[in-house]
């Protein structure tokens, strides 16, 4: 990818992030219900509400409020939650770590299972392993996430007692325990992801196997392993890479069910709490952070496209 | 010259094979029947081939005549599920290909038999630099390590006439012209110094000027390496200039077979005659209309009892519709044909082998 198109991409990313900032800010003003009554309760007097609004800046014009907030954001200050008094940037920093660890862990597990399985199944198309993997992926797709989670907790935490059922230990305290606490939630996410990745990659590999250059590779006497992993895999990866990127962005803020079930203090739970309590400062900060992750991951995906496929890199 | 020099410990080529008098590839009654949605198709039906080292056999025919199926079947490249039946015998350097398992065939493919495909745009992997595509068979068959394989790849690119090979080696197919890509394909096919090269319409997808270069390159490499070459083509101009023997196929069967000069100078099977009449010649008379072959190629699932060409043949007789003609020496010529009513020899004189006048003047200078 040329420097120019990279700069263009970065410019687009900035535009996206500013738009998200404006939109989430506007959302907070559009939604019914005031923060003051949410914090102070229904019995608050008009004087108390006016005092609250003056302290939090809610009495200022919306444009002025946005300017103050956004200037802070640019300096790394996402404001302070009026409900808890906690600085949003501190909370986000705390919450982003388990979320990111969980998603990276889940993606790695999912790919480690789905990639070899998809290549093998496509190569043995219509044979027993292919049929078994297809059926397995359907079962996983059809099973709700919470059911998988409960099943895993029952087997590995309750029956075997091998892993903690819930909770999260920060890596700075005990990295081994972090791994143990994240294993079951990561597997829960990974099973669903793996089922989708398997299907997408299998379809891609099947298509690639029809290409002339695969026949040519076979005519060169290459082993099935060389044909599959040297010639077939890379051209088949593009749809999968896109999907992995999209899921990554989604799960950083969207793994709410898993975070709730396993009591992991992640971004999804944080955002959900903020919506329920109308804590807009928190919501704005969380949404902006998640959007930033989305944008960065997709930028990385675009770069990876060029690495995987020289036709994109060398296109005029 | 073999760019790999002494590093190539070939599989010990015997000087002559056990059967077939010095012929490297020997087919007898070779048949391939394929499953198709509309029934079983005799894609290749009773083909005989004798091909010696250093010789080029051209296989000619329309699309669907069985040329490509023949070659892919020999190499075991047809999907196993597609093959309904194989008949006859196929020996390569004394090895019975019919009883050779997939693993052993893999050792022959790419190492002893190289293959060049029709369209270098699609037969090269778009996401691998070309040196890696050349290097993979070298690493597999010759057990070269990564560095040696890359060095060999650059030498191979040099030997097929690619300028600045060290720089080109790191490029991707998308950065190369069609002719250059076909040179890369040839470099891949020749990497392990094969005994036999199968070129499946190697120039059909290329510009005319590039065609001549590629065919010249194949001729040079064949002579240098004492390789046997099967040249699949539907271009009789290419066949005339670049082959020793020719086999004309129609509907999976051999229609006419013999020394290229003799067959093209005095075709006896009406189908060959029609092919020649349909081909434009550089020195042909201006304004001459090219004669199209009337009718359609036959439905291979429902071949007639008689000659497969009977429905389109201008010389058809009653017998042609009921009884398929066997391939036999044609009276009055030095080659074989499968025809009940062959085209008369011009002047009705018996032509000695290779003594016939050549239809195209270019032929005289093209080959030693």
From TrEMBL, chain B:
Keywords: ATP-binding, Cell membrane, Membrane, Nucleotide-binding, Transport. It is a peripheral membrane protein. GO terms for molecular function: ATP binding; ATP hydrolysis activity. Residues 27-276 form the ABC transporter domain. It is found in: Cell membrane. It comes from the Bacteria. One of its GO terms (cellular component) is plasma membrane. One of its GO terms (biological process) is peptide transport. Residues 339-368 are annotated as: Disordered. Gene3D superfamilies: P-loop containing nucleotide triphosphate hydrolases. Its main location: membrane. Pfam families: ABC_tran (PF00005), oligo_HPY (PF08352). Belongs to the ABC transporter superfamily. NCBIfam families: oligo_HPY. This is ABC transporter ATP-binding protein.
């Amino acid at each position: 990818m040329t420097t120019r198109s990279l700069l263009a991409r970065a410019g687009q990313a900035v535009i996206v992030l500013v738009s998200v900032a404006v939109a989430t800010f506007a959302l907070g003003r559009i939604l019914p219900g005031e923060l003051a009554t949410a914090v102070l309760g229904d019995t608050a007097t008009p004087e108390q509400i006016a005092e609250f609004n003056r302290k939090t800046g809610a009495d200022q014009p919306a444009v002025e409020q946005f300017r103050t907030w956004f200037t802070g954001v640019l300096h790394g200050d996402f404001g302070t939650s009026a409900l808890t008094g906690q600085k949003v940037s501190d909370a986000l920093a705390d919450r982003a770590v388990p979320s990111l660890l969980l998603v990276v862990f889940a993606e790695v597990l999912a790919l480690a299972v789905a990639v070899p399985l998809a290549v093998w199944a496509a190569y043995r198309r219509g044979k027993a392993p292919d049929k078994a993997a297809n059926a397995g992926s359907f079962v996983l797709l059809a099973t709700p996430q919470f059911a998988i989670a409960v099943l895993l907790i029952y087997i590995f935490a309750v029956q075997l007692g091998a892993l903690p059922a819930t909770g999260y230990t920060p890596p700075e305290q005990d990295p081994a325990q972090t791994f143990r606490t994240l294993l079951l939630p990561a597997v829960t996410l990974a099973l669903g992801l793996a089922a989708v990745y398997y299907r997408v990659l299998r379809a891609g590999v099947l298509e690639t196997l029809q290409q002339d250059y695969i026949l040519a590779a076979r005519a060169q006497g290459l082993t099935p392993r060389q044909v599959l992993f040297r010639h077939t895999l890379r051209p088949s990866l593009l749809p999968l890479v896109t999907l992995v990127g999209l899921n990554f962005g989604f799960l950083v803020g969207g793994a709410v069910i898993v975070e709730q079930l396993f009591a992991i203090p992640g971004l999804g739970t944080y955002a959900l709490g903020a919506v329920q309590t109308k804590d807009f400062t928190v919501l704005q900060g969380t949404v902006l952070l998640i959007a930033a992750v989305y944008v960065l991951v997709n930028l990385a995906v675009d770069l990876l496209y060029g690495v995987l496929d020289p036709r994109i890199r060398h296109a005029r | 010259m073999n760019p790999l020099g002494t590093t190539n410990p070939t599989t010990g080529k015997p000087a002559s094979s056990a059967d077939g008098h010095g012929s490297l590839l020997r087919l007898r009654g070779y048949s391939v029947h394929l499953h198709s949605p509309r029934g079983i198709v005799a894609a290749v039906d009773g083909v005989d081939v004798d091909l010696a080292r250093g010789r080029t056999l051209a296989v000619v025919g329309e699309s669907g005549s069985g040329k490509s199926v023949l070659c892919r079947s020999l190499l075991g490249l047809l999907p196993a599920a597609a093959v309904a039946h194989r008949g006859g015998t196929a020996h390569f350097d004394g090895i019975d290909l019919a009883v050779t398992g997939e693993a052993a065939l893999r050792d022959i493919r790419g190492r002893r038999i190289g293959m060049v495909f029709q369209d270098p745009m699609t037969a090269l992997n778009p996401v691998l630099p070309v040196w890696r595509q050349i290097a993979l068979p070298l690493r597999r068959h010759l057990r070269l390590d990564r560095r040696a394989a890359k060095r060999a790849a650059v030498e191979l690119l040099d030997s097929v006439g690619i300028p600045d090979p060290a720089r080109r080696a790191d490029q991707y197919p998308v950065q190369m012209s069609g002719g250059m890509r076909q040179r890369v394909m040839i470099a891949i096919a020749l990497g392990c110094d094969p005994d036999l090269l199968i070129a499946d319409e190697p120039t059909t997808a290329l510009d005319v000027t590039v065609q001549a270069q590629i065919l010249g390159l194949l001729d040079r490499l064949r002579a240098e390496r004492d390789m046997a070459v099967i040249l699949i083509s539907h271009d009789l101009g290419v066949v005339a200039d670049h082959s020793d023997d020719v086999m004309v196929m129609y509907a999976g069967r051999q229609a006419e077979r013999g020394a290229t000069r003799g067959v093209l100078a005095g075709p006896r099977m009406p189908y060959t005659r029609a092919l020649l009449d349909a081909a434009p010649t550089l020195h042909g008379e201006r304004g001459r209309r090219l004669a199209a072959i009337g009718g359609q190629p036959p439905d291979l699932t429902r071949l007639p009892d008689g000659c497969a060409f009977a429905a389109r043949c201008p010389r058809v007789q009653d017998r042609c519709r009921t009884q398929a003609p066997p391939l036999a020496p044609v009276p009055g010529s030095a080659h074989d044909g499968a025809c009940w009513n062959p085209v008369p020899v011009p002047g009705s004189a018996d032509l000695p082998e290779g003594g016939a006048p050549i239809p195209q003047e270019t032929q005289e200078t093209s080959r030693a």
